[in-house]
Every structure is written in C-alpha cells, then in structure tokens.
Amino acid sequence: MKGRSLQPRGKPDLSRRNLLQGASAGLAASLVGSWLPASSAPSGPFTATAAAVSTQGASNASIDPDHIFIPKPVASPVTLVTEPVMGSDIPVQLIYVETVDGLYAPIGLRKPPRNGPFPFVVFAHMNGGLGVRWIREWTQYGSWTLEEFLKAGYAVAWTRYRAEVNNAYGPRLVEKRREGRQLFNRGPLEYEDAIAIIKYVKTLPYVDPSRVGYVGLSHAGEMLMKIATEYDGLRASIASEPASHEYLALRPAPPNPNGPLPETLKVNTEEMQRKAVEEVRTRVDMAGAMERIRAIKTPIRVQGRDRDHNQAVFRLNYELLREAGKDVEWQSYDHDEHGFIFVRRNEKGVYAPDPTQLQVVKDSMAYLDRHLKA
Q1: 3-class DSSP assignment, residue 283
Q2: Alpha helices by DSSP H, 186-296
Q3: pLDDT digits (tens, 9 = 90+) for 12-56
Q4: What proportion of the chain, given as a percentage, has pLDDT over 70?
Q5: One CATH from 3.30.460.10, 3.40.50.1820, 3.40.50.300, 3.40.50.970 for 80-372
C-alpha cells in the first residue's frame, strides 16, 4: 500500500517513522547512550537506562518531531539587519518574516525615535518578487511617502512578497499534514505573505497591534481586497488604483480593434468614465464578487486616477463595496503617472513631489489618522 512499509511478521519495525515515534523511548535512550564515554560503563549522573528514559517520558521540543528528536528548543532569533537611509536620521531594519509555509518575506521597517507604541502602516507596491534588493532600492530612492508618515508619528514598512501568479486566486488555503509536515491544497499566494507580515508587525513591542493599517498600490490594492476578505486584523486601509480584475472575477474585454489603450489616456471625461464602469459591470461575475465582498469588515478608502486605462475597475471596486454596505470612501485624482502616491527621487537625487502627490498623501494620512489615531 502507498505510504506504508510492510514488515515481516515477527521482526521489529525499524523504519525511521517508527524509531522517531514515541521519542520518549528508543530515540531518547539512544541519545542518552551517545552522551556516555565509549570505554566505560554507565555510572554517576549517566545511570539512566533505556527503560528509565522511556518511563520518564521525555518530550520532543522539535518543530519537526516525526523526523528528529530535540530535548530542548533551539534558539531561532529573527534575522534583522540595520542600515542607514540617505538624508534621514531614521535607519531601516531589514527583517525576514516567516510566512505560512516557512519561507521568508523581507520587509524594510522604520520607526520614530521614541519608544511607542506607534500606529503602524504596511506599504505595498504593485506586484511582488525581487526580494530584499527591492526593499533597499525603494528605501533609498522611493520613500518620501513613508517618511511623511514617519514624521507624523507612524512606524512604517516597505514589504515584499511572492510574485503574482496569474489567475490563481480562488479556493482558500487549507493546511493538512503529511509525514508530519505541511501539506496544502494549493501554493501560498502573495496576499497570504502580506497577512503574515501584518501579523508579525503586531507582535513588535513598539507597535500598537490595534492600530495597524495598509496602503497598497495597483496589484497590491487588489491584494488588499483579498486580505480583507479573509483576515479582519487591519484597523483601516487604502487601495490606491486597485487593479482588482481577478478579485472581481472580471471576464476579459473583447479585443480593441484600435489596439490596447495607453496606461494614461489623453482624455477621460466623467461621462466616458460612467460608460466604462457600466461596460465593466457586464463582465463581472457579480455573484462571485459580491460573495467575496460581503465578508469584508475593514474600512477601505479607494483612490482612483482620472485618466488611468483601468479607472473603470477602480471605480467599480468602490461601487460594489458601497452597494454591499461596507465602510468605504472614494476619491480620484488627475495625474500623468500610475503609482503617483509613491514619490521617487528625481534625476538630481531629490524628492520633489508635485501638487497632486502632496494632496494624495495628505488625504491618505488624514484618512488613516481618523482610524489609527482616534
């Protein structure tokens, strides 16, 4: 039979699983034996016999008890590296956060110089991947928005998570066990890494766990919708230009005879936007989308961009939340660049936010202040 080894009748089962089961007996006794000098009989403190160890019932402190015996927990400190940030007195702490399957997602955490506890905002930029190098680059060259929150008394973090897997969202992650280890019904996804990060920052002694928020851009805005559907641990959140196609179960649009639209349209009047939302509604699996949305409890601010080619998706994301009776707000801005909420250094190495960027960050902070500082 698959997964089992049959032993001849009358002979002991010497399989690894059998030896490791009941670590209080055979394996513990062999460990005691391994501590004895090879040339001497047991004496003094080493008088325990196999039978005695078995009776004492030694417990196994291992995270992997089906495969190894550990008499006491092995220290496992969080990996943390502190690095300076150009133009700032507040360094970044690079931390590797364990995710649901034991792999690690890097974050770049910064906090005000006081002891806290601080409200905390998790920042997520578009699709994932690229690892800790992405954290380092954006901390040095794309952190103006986060630094404005730092000045206002928030602890903040840039986050990385797995790369997006196209059209993989659907069944919830279910964990079972095989050979004493994790067995999932599917691979973990990027939004589940984000949940692990949120849960981790809540454990930090200088963070108020009841005042944690999230700001996600584009795909990371869609991630927020997935997070909020399955996890109720955010006090408030912002989905900026959320590309929620997959979350809303949006069917593809028919081919455009004029080719794909540019990311930023030259003109997108209110009437054009209204008609585009109506068209997108016809392609949504409304039953599936609303079932997901009904589970949301987190307050959400949806931020659009007037001339974005996906503005209709942003707006419909908001409208469906509102129609479901959720705590939701909407504001849209006119800007030439997708992702304008996150200000990067210019060619001279200087942060020079334009008026619209100043406004969107001011509005975002005011919204989170109402929820995280009240």
Answers
A1: coil
A2: 190-201, 219-230, 270-281, 286-294
A3: 444 444 434 443 333 333 333 333 333 333 444 333 333 333 324
A4: 85
A5: 3.40.50.1820
At 361, list the tokens.
Answer: 């960050």
**Burial class (CB within 10 angstroms; exposed 0-12, middle 13-18, buried 19+) of 256:** exposed
Q: What is the mean pLDDT of the chain?
A: 88
Tokens read off for 66: 């089906």
The pairing of strands 155-159 and 104-110 is antiparallel
Q: Can you give the residue ranges of every domain in the chain?
A: 12-76, 80-372
Q: Which two tokens stand for residue 93?
A: 């702490």
228: its two tokens: 């909020």
- Give the number of other Cβ atoms within 10 Å of residue 278's Cβ: 11
Structure tokens at 122: 């998790």
Tracing tokens 């809540």 back to the chain, one arrives at: 202
3-state secondary structure of 81: strand
pTM for this prediction: 0.84
Q: How far is CA 35 from the centre of its chain?
A: 44
d(CA 179, CA 21): 11
Question: The tokens of 285 are what?
Answer: 């699996």
